[in-house]
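Per reviewer request, we include the raw input and output of the structure prediction for the construct analysed in the revised manuscript.
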Amino acid sequence: MSALHVSSLRLSHFRSHMRADLACDGRPVSLFGPNGAGKTNILEAVSLLSPGRGLRRSSAEDMTRRPEALGWKIAAVMRNGDRVTEVETWSEAGASRQVRIDGKTAPQIQLGRIAPVLWLVPSMDRLWIEGSEGRRRFLDRATMSFEPTHAEAVLTYEKAMRERNRLLKDMVRDAHWYAALEAQMADAGARIIAGRKHAVAELMRGQDAAQTHFPASDLTITGADGAEMPETADDLLTAYTESRPRDIAAGRSLVGPHRADLSAVFRAKGVPARDCSTGEQKALLIALILANARALLRDQGTPPLLLLDEVSAHLDAARRAALYDEICALGAQAWMTGTGMELFEELASRAQYVSVDEEAGRSIVQEVTP
């Protein structure tokens, strides 16, 4: 197959897997087995083929297999048409994560230029009813899929804001101490806001471009508590200056893209996502993941890798079949988990089936024929 996919994946001392090897042909990959066997660990490994801390947001140390704690390694071959890329990422005991691409050491951000990776995990089911931090993280992942340099802007902003917050907590009032930090925050913040707005527009277009069994939503970015938020570098710089007395009293920065929120309204019903049923909230999330993938396919000519953890367990048979049809229509390599092979029966021969089990403390990962 010509679409982007992982053609081989090798894990060494990663989570529950002392060793695991998989060869893939580009079809969706259905991982099935009992709870606790290590299915999600494989999805996490694939998520680390993108920048960041993966779908669990764990530290490198937490990913190492116990009790050995020797460190871990993931090696993958990625194919996209005629292009073949070898990716290795690892962490030695107690060290930070390292990346090598085609045999050369590389920064993590370069992974985003090879393969956009989108995921949906059970912890995201409460996205619309919990705090805004998770929604910002969701939005930033979508933004990074369109523009990998978004990660650099976020890191620059957060580093400058941490330094500013130290000054605020120490109740420093001399404006000269803040000038350079606030200029950095303003520049990076404007790039963050512009990237997020572009991502929302792309998600909306991705929803509008297809007839789907999953409901569309209208998306809006707001400031804290629904307030308007400055967007340009000049306006952000002015806002930081004017907010400084309040920020000193609070001991933290109260204005900026770190206070943004993403709201969604179920379009067909005009109901905010936070007020929808659990099933509707899940369907809205799936619709956004599919819209993201559709937009990337349109703009970049290839779909992203999709990681869908336990997604089939929350859908009835009709909607499950609709999801599988949409994944196959996209041509995406979707890595999906479930407790039994029957949860993927609507895929039939359109998928590869991989059994994940554990025996005597060791994982057993092997492809099977349905």
